[in-house]
Structures are given as C-alpha cells and as structure tokens.
C-alpha cells in the first residue's frame, strides 16, 4: 500500500504552515552542507513532508499482538527515532520542544516523553547522518547515480536496511510501505517548483 498522495492544495498548506523562515533556513543549511546542488533542499523538505507533513511532532508505531499502536518514539519534523542508541544519546543533549511546538521549553531535553528537538537541531543532525551515509554507501559499492535515493531510504530503513534492499535490487524494500525514497524524490521537484514560484521564499547565498 503506497503512502498518501499529496494534492497541490495540501502541499501549499503544508509549506505555508512550515513557514517562510523554516523554508529559507532549510535552503541555507542544505547549501552549506551540500554545496553544488547534489542534495537539494527540496529533498529534505519532502522527507519532512513524508514523515510529519512538516510538523514538529512525536510519531512512530510498534506492532503489538499484530496491531499497530502509536509509540511516540520518533522525534521532530524529520522523525529521529529514539530507539537507536546514538539518536537517543543526542536527543538527551539538546533542547526539547513540547510535542507540536517549535519553541524549546526551558530545562527540557528532546529525549523526554512527548518532546521533540528544535527545527534546526533536527535538520543539522539529519544532514550529518546523510553525509555519513553517503560515504558509507560509496564504500559499500552503491553507484554514484543511486546514492541520493539510497541515503533517503537509509533515513527510514537504516543504513543496513537500505543496503540490503539495494543489493537485492530494491532500495525501498525495507522502508515503510516499501516506497519511501521513491515518494520523497517524487515530491521534491514539486516543492522546488513551489519555492521557485514564491520569490520571497527563495534563499540567495
């Protein structure tokens, strides 16, 4: 079963709610980490669209007795899972925003129940993950033309899950609903077109 289709009006609403500052910040930070355009800011926004509809919330689910139940273990607009030890360690060191808010609460960290990292914190952490995954992918024999889709899939399936799928001929085999990277890369150009059509939302280096 594929992920939900996002209509143009839904995409417009999601980006407008995300906000001008956030859209500009994503563009600035992605360009700083991936100069040259290999990794487009619209890809990161599409990843956030797939994960949370660009909201700063707790998500995630686990299967209990054959039924899916919400776990709230995935944190923030990019859904950084606290079930991974490295992620949990990082979440414990950064300011936490109450679920659904972009503003950190004084004295709280993102590892606390129903708390999430800041918009910038989650983005910077995810971009570092993708830099690492890109190098690991090259080392593991992933073709350069496949690497972008690979690191998107790895955000959801983990590096090993994405690599196992890739080596078997389908990098999305172990992603949620089996279409994660395809979905993200399908909507990224639509987000890029939206930004191009709104000059005040375009970042200029």
Please explain how this structure is put together:
By secondary structure, the protein is mostly helical. The protein is about 50% helix and about 10% strand. The chain contains seven helices and five strands. The strands form two sheets. Strands 1-2-3 form a three-stranded antiparallel β-sheet, with no helix packed on it. The protein has a two-stranded antiparallel ribbon with strand order 4-5. A hairpin with a 2-residue loop joins strand 1 (about 60-65) and strand 2 (about 65-75). Helix 2 (about 20-35) packs across helix 3. It is globular and about 45 Å long.
Separation of termini? Answer: 40 Å
How is the quaternary structure best described?
Answer: single chain
* Percent of sequence in beta strands: 5-15%
Low-confidence stretches: none
* Large-scale geometry: globular
SSE pattern, N- to C-terminal:
HHHEEEHEEHHH
Count of individual helical segments: 7
Biggest sheet features:
3 strands, antiparallel
Which strand order does the major sheet show? Answer: 1-2-3
List the helices and strands and how they pair.
Layout: H1 8-18, H2 20-33, H3 41-52, E1 58-64, E2 67-75, E3 80-81, H4 85-91, E4 97-98, E5 115-116, H5 119-139, H6 147-167, H7 180-196
Antiparallel strand pairs: 1-2, 2-3, 4-5
Helix pairs in contact: 2-3, 2-5, 3-7, 5-6, 6-7
């Amino acid at each position: 079963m594929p992920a939900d289709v996002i209509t143009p009006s839904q995409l417009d609403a999601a980006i407008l709610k995300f906000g001008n500052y956030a859209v500009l910040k994503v563009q600035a930070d992605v360009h700083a980490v991936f100069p040259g355009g290999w990794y487009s800011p619209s890809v990161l926004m599409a990843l956030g669209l797939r994960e949370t509809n660009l909201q700063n919330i707790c998500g995630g689910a686990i299967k209990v007795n054959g039924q899916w139940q919400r776990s709230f273990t995935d944190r923030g607009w990019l859904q950084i899972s606290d079930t991974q030890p490295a992620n949990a360690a990082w979440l414990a060191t950064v300011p936490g925003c109450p679920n659904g808010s972009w503003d950190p609460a004084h004295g709280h960290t993102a590892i606390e129940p129903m708390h999430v990292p800041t918009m910038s914190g989650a983005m910077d952490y995810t971009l570092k993950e993708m830099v690492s995954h890109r190098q690991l992918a090259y080392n593991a024999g992933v073709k350069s033309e496949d690497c972008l889709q690979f690191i998107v899939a790895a955000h959801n399936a983990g590096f090993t899950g994405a690599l196992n799928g890739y080596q078997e001929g389908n990098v999305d085999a172990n992603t949620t609903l089996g279409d994660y990277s395809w979905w993200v890369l399908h909507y990224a150009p639509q987000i890029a077109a939206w930004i191009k059509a709104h000059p005040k939302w375009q970042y200029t280096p």
